[in-house]
């Protein structure tokens, strides 16, 4: 069993508990070792010394345990969340997707339009600001139990739990409007962004990676048709490998 201290309140409780254990142990040892009259005579001063010595030591140990817990929590967060945007990593996305229940879900693959050109023209600092804002818009316009992840570069994947494909398309179009409505401000200059979206069904017990591939094909079609739009995966149109084309950038 591993003892964890997760707050300052628990640090204080830990210090009190340790001090009480030391106090009771000291009293029991005194009764066993010393004659009764001497034990009674030294009870108060010895108890005072035991508490005065044990309490600060226990508090110090509790503080170190709290710091260790906070460091572990930060490391765990860093492993499962993208450092730049704060959304989930690809690995964490698949972990959470594997925990889904029996309801049908929707996968949305989102990609910032012309991001390479944006980076080249305005610099990497502006690109980082755009990525952070883009991720924030995705997260803020999804429910708490949905999953938003950065898969690399300017590509993000959103998983909407317990959602139909028609509602998924509505959600993707809503995200597109939010992106258009919120420019990125760099040195007081408002820079507009748009994004393209591919939408696919993740059936109960389905393979998340297969759904992502389908949404990616729908995304390719959205970019090929002019970008700044959302399309649902259509097997009659989107099945097969993605062609190599500048339209997919």
Plain-language structure description:
The chain has 249 residues and is α+β, with helices and mostly antiparallel strands. Helices cover 57% and strands 15% of the residues. The strands form 2 sheets. The chain has a 5-stranded mixed β-sheet, with helices on both faces. A two-stranded antiparallel sheet has the order 4-5. Helix 1 runs antiparallel to helix 2 (36-80) and helix 4 (115-122) crosses helix 5. The radius of gyration is 29 Å and the shape is elongated. The model has no long low-confidence stretch (mean pLDDT 87). Its EC number is 2.7.7.65. The chain crosses the membrane at residues 12-31. This is diguanylate cyclase.
Keywords:
alpha+beta; Alpha-Beta Plaits; five-stranded mixed sheet; diguanylate cyclase; 249 residues; 8 helices; 15% strand; transmembrane; two-stranded antiparallel ribbon
At a glance:
With 249 residues, this protein is α+β, with helices and mostly antiparallel strands.
Layout of secondary structure:
Elements: H1 8-33, H2 36-80, H3 90-97, E1 105-112, H4 115-122, H5 124-140, E2 147-152, E3 155-160, H6 165-181, E4 184-186, E5 189-191, E6 195-202, H7 208-224, E7 230-232, H8 235-238
Parallel strand pairs: 6-7
Antiparallel strand pairs: 1-3, 1-6, 2-3, 4-5
Helix pairs in contact: 1-2, 4-5
Mean pLDDT: 87
Question: Can you identify the CATH superfamily of the largest domain?
Answer: Reverse transcriptase/Diguanylate cyclase domain
Query: What structural class results from the helix and strand content?
Result: alpha+beta
Q: Helix proportion of residues, in percent?
A: 55-70%
How is the main sheet built?
Answer: 5 strands, mixed
Sequence of secondary-structure elements: HHHEHHEEHEEEHEH
Radius of gyration: 29 Å
Main β-sheet, spatial strand arrangement: 2-3-1-6-7
Give the name of the CATH architecture of the largest domain: 2-Layer Sandwich
Number of domains: 2
Quote the distance from N terminus to C terminus. Answer: 52 Å
The proportion of strand residues reads 5-15%
Q: Kindly report the CATH topology of the largest domain.
A: Alpha-Beta Plaits
Topology, number of strands: 7
- Count the DSSP helices: 8
User: Outline, from the CA principal axes?
Assistant: elongated
Quaternary state reads single chain
Low-confidence stretches: none
CATH class of the largest domain: Alpha Beta
Catalytic activity: 2 GTP = 3',3'-c-di-GMP + 2 diphosphate
InterPro entries: Diguanylate_Cyclase, GGDEF_dom, Nucleotide_cyclase, Rev_trsase/Diguanyl_cyclase
GO molecular function: diguanylate cyclase activity
Protein name: diguanylate cyclase
């Amino acid at each position: 069993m591993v003892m964890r201290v997760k707050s300052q309140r628990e640090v204080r409780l830990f210090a009190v508990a340790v001090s009480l254990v030391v106090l009771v142990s000291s009293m029991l040892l005194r009764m066993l070792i010393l004659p009764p009259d001497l034990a009674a005579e030294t009870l108060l001063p010895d108890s005072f010394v035991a508490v005065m010595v044990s309490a600060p030591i226990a508090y110090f140990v509790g503080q170190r345990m709290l710091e260790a817990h906070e460091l572990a929590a930060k490391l765990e967060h860093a492993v499962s969340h993208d450092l730049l945007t704060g959304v989930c990593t690809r690995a964490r996305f698949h972990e959470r997707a594997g925990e889904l229940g029996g309801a049908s879900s929707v996968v949305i693959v989102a990609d910032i339009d012309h991001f390479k050109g944006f980076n080249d023209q305005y610099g990497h600092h502006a690109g980082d600001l755009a990525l952070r804002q883009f991720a924030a818009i995705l997260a803020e316009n999804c429910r708490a139990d949905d999953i938003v992840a950065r898969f690399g570069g300017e590509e993000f994947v959103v998983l909407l739990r317990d959602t139909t494909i028609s509602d998924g398309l509505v959600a993707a179009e809503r995200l597109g409007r939010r992106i258009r409505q919120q420019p990125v401000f760099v040195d007081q200059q408002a820079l507009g962004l748009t994004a393209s979206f591919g939408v696919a069904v993740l059936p109960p017990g389905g393979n998340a990676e297969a759904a992502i591939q389908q949404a990616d094909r729908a995304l390719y079609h959205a970019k090929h048709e002019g970008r700044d739009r959302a399309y649902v995966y259509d097997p009659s149109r989107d099945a097969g490998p993605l062609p190599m084309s500048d339209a997919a950038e």
